[in-house]
Design a protein that fits this description.
Blueprint lengths: L1 H24 L3 H7 L3 H16 L12 H35 L14 H25 L1 H7 L18 H8 L1 H9 L3 H17 L18 H7 L20 H5 L7 E2 L2 E2 L18 H6 L5 H11 L13
Helix pairs in contact: 1-9, 3-9, 4-7, 4-8, 5-6, 5-7, 5-9
The structure holds zinc ion (2 copies).
C-alpha cells in the first residue's frame, strides 16, 4: 500500500506535465483558453484540493479563517495582476529605450534567435534563473521583503494560499520576465510552450497534501522542497531562507541555497510553517496586505474614521 502511495505521489507531477503539453501540442489549449482563461492553473488548483483531502498532511493547519483573503488574492493575481503589469511595463519596455537610446529593445527577429527548440530551452532557463534571483532579492532587500513577507505569514501551504501575495511582489517574480522576453523578440509560440513547465511545479509547490517528491525533489520545486522555504525556523547557516527556486530546484543546488534533510532515508519536513523567526501572525485583511507595505493603509483608516457618522450619547446613531 505504501509503495503504491509513493509511486502515485511521484506520478502526479509528470502526469500534469504530460496532460498540459498534450493539450498545447494538439492545439486544443487555445480554444479552452477562450472558454475559460487560466483553465490550466485552475485545474492544477482543483487537483491539489482533491489530493489535500486524500492524503492528509500530519502538520496541516486549517486556513479557513483566512479563506476570504485567499479567494480575493487568488483572483487578483490570476486575472488582474498580469494584465495591469503589462499595461504599465510594456510601454516602458518599448518606448523608453527608443526615446533615450534611439533604438528598440528588440534585438532580433524570432528567426535570428535560433531554432524553436533552442528558444524554448533559453526561455525556460532565463525565466527560472530570473525568478530564482528576484525571489532571493525579495528576501534580502527591505522594501521587497515588506511586499513579499505577506506570502510568508501563511501558517500552512495549501492550494488556497498559492497566490496569496502582494500584486507587486507577484508581478516582479512572475510577470516581468515574460514581458521582457516577449519584447526582445522570442517566438510567441516558444514563450507559450514554456508556460506549463514554469507554471505547473510553481503552482503545485503549495499543495498541502502529504505527497512525496522522491528524486523529483532535485529537479522540481515540490511541496516537500517549498515547505522548507516557508519554515518558521530558518535552517542554520541559510541566512534569509533556503529553496528560493520557483519551479526548478537546481538553481538552489548551483548557488548553495538548497536544503532538504533526510533521516533514515525519509525526507524530513519543518514542524511549523510561518513568518521566519515567528512573531507575525497571518494577515486576514486583504486591504491591509495590499496597502500597508506601500504606507497607504493608515491614511485609508484615517479617512474611514473621518467619514464615520458620530454615535449618539448611548452608542446610538443620532436622530436625523
Ligand atoms: Zn519567499
Ligand atoms: Zn510559497
Amino acid at each position: 500500500m505504501a509503495a503504491i502511495f509513493y509511486v502515485g505521489s511521484l506520478a502526479i507531477l509528470p502526469a500534469l506535465y504530460m496532460m498540459f503539453y498534450g493539450f498545447r501540442l494538439a492545439g486544443r489549449a487555445y480554444s479552452i483558453d477562450q472558454w475559460l482563461p487560466k483553465w490550466d492553473t485552475l485545474l492544477i488548483l482543483c487537483t491539489m484540493i482533491i489530493l489535500e483531502r486524500l492524503y492528509r498532511y500530519r502538520y496541516a493547519v486549517s486556513q479557513r479563517s483566512v479563506l476570504t483573503r485567499d479567494i480575493i488574492s487568488n483572483v487578483v493575481n490570476l486575472y488582474v495582476t498580469g494584465m495591469v503589469t503589462g499595461m504599465i511595463v510594456l510601454p516602458a519596455l518599448v518606448f523608453l529605450p527608443q526615446h533615450y537610446l534611439g533604438r528598440k529593445i528588440i534585438l532580433a527577429s524570432s528567426e535570428q534567435l535560433g531554432p524553436f527548440w533552442l528558444q524554448v530551452l533559453v526561455i525556460l532557463l532565463s525565466v527560472s534563473f530570473f525568478r530564482y534571483w528576484i525571489h532571493r532579492l525579495q528576501h534580502s532587500i527591505p522594501f521587497l521583503w515588506k511586499l513579499h513577507s505577506y506570502h510568508h505569514r501563511v501558517t500552512d501551504l495549501q492550494a488556497s494560499n498559492t497566490f496569496v501575495s502582494h500584486p507587486i511582489d507577484f508581478a516582479l517574480r512572475n510577470v516581468v520576465i515574460f514581458l521582457v522576453l516577449g519584447v526582445i523578440g522570442f517566438n510567441p509560440f516558444a514563450l507559450l510552450m514554456t508556460v506549463p513547465a514554469t507554471g505547473i511545479s510553481g503552482t503545485f509547490s503549495h499543495c498541502g497534501a502529504d505527497i512525496k517528491g522522491g528524486f523529483l525533489n532535485y529537479l522540481f520545486v515540490t511541496p516537500e522542497v517549498h515547505r522548507w522555504h516557508h519554515s518558521e525556523q530558518i535552517p542554520e547557516g541559510y541566512g534569509y531562507s533556503c529553496n528560493y527556486g520557483v519551479e526548478f530546484s537546481f538553481w538552489d543546488m548551483i548557488f548553495g541555497t538548497f536544503y532538504l534533510p533526510q533521516k533514515d532515508g525519509i525526507t524530513e519536513q519543518p514542524a511549523r510553517i510561518g513568518y521566519p523567526g515567528g512573531g507575525l501572525a497571518d494577515e486576514s485583511n486583504y486591504l491591509k496586505l495590499l496597502l500597508a507595505p506601500l504606507g497607504l493603509y493608515r491614511p485609508l483608516s484615517w479617512f474611514r474614521d473621518v467619514l464615520r457618522i458620530p454615535k449618539g450619547p448611548h452608542g446610538q446613531q443620532p436622530a436625523e
